[in-house]
Structures are given as C-alpha cells and as structure tokens.
Amino acid sequence: MADGGASLRALLDTVNTLLRQRRYRAALAVLKGFRNGAVYGAKIRAPHALVMTFLFKEGSLREKLKSIAQATFTHSRNLAYFVFTYKGLMALQSRLLGKKIPLHSFFAAFIGGWLVFGENNPINSQIIMYLLSRILFGLSRLAVEKGYVPQPKQDPFPLVAALLWGTVLWLFEYHRHTLQPSLQSSMTYLYDDSNVWHDISDFLIYNKRSTNK
C-alpha cells in the first residue's frame, strides 16, 4: 500500500514537472483549451437544455433526459473541438512566422468555425445567433472608438431595444416560420398560450389543461 502511494506521488511529481516545462507550453495550452471548452460547453448547455426540454418538449422522462444529455454532449464536444482547433492553429502560425498578428486569430477561428460549427443544426444555430448579436454590438462600439461613426449624443440602447422587440414580435405574429424553433416555442408560451384557458387550473396553476379532462 505504501509502495502504491509512493508511486502515485512520483507520478504526480513527474506530471507537474512536465507541466512546468516552457517548451511544452503551447501544446499543453491547446490541451487545456480542449478541457475548458468541454467543461464550459457542458455548464452552459445542461441548464438551458433542462429548462427548455421540461418546459416545451413532449415525451417520457427517459426521452427528455436523453434529449438533455445529447444536447449537452454536442455543445460540450463542439466547443472543445473548436478551442482545440483554434489554439492549435494559433500556435502553429506563431511558430511558423515567429510572431503573432491579428489576422492569425481570424484565420484560425475561421477554419475552426467552418470545421466544427459548419453543420446547420439546432445547437450550432443557437451558438451562431448568440455570437452574431455580440459581434454586432462589438463592431458598433469599435466603429465609434475608431471614429468611423460619431459618438451618439444620447444612449442608443433604448432605441435598439425598441427596434429589436418591435421587429421580433412582428416576425412572430406574421412570419413565424423565419424564427429559430426555440424562440418560437418561448414566444408561443408567452403570447399564444396566455390567450387560452378553461378554468382556474389552466389560468393560474398550469399553462395547458390536461388532455384527459
């Protein structure tokens, strides 16, 4: 038993020594990026999938749990693959050219995005739309910082919020099929299901009346 403990400590010391070696830093950063991508993807997707599945999806408990597990695995895997690809290509470009330039980041992420997130499925679609909204905000702020767009005299956020809500509800009411399925489900729950009730049970307690009533 003592020999086993000593062997484990020796193994840990060897691993820790390896992790401190600067010559392996780039490769180890790629591996830790894969790890962090997998963990972060699971943390983000699991609670979202749990809520959306139990709120809007029909089926048995087993089917719902399977759906949650699949969505969590897909998000976690894709983010891990992307971080691994991005950091690997960044390290490769830096090693080949001897320096890091801004275009390297775009190129590495472009390749990673094409390979990992290029398939049009619900998980990737949600991630891309999440990124799109953040990118538009980021580019708007950058345009102001660089002087391409004059600094607004008033905070434009209220106008942006009003335009976005006006547009999305117009699309929901008259062109619903153009919206992403999870957004359709959320808005159906909020704006359509709230128009229907039969008694106190499905007015305050439940969203929909039980089908056996």
From TrEMBL:
GO terms for cellular component: peroxisomal membrane. It comes from the Eukaryota. Transmembrane segments: none annotated. InterPro entries: Pmp4. Pfam families: Tim17. This is PXMP4 protein. It comes from Nothocercus julius. The gene is Pxmp4.
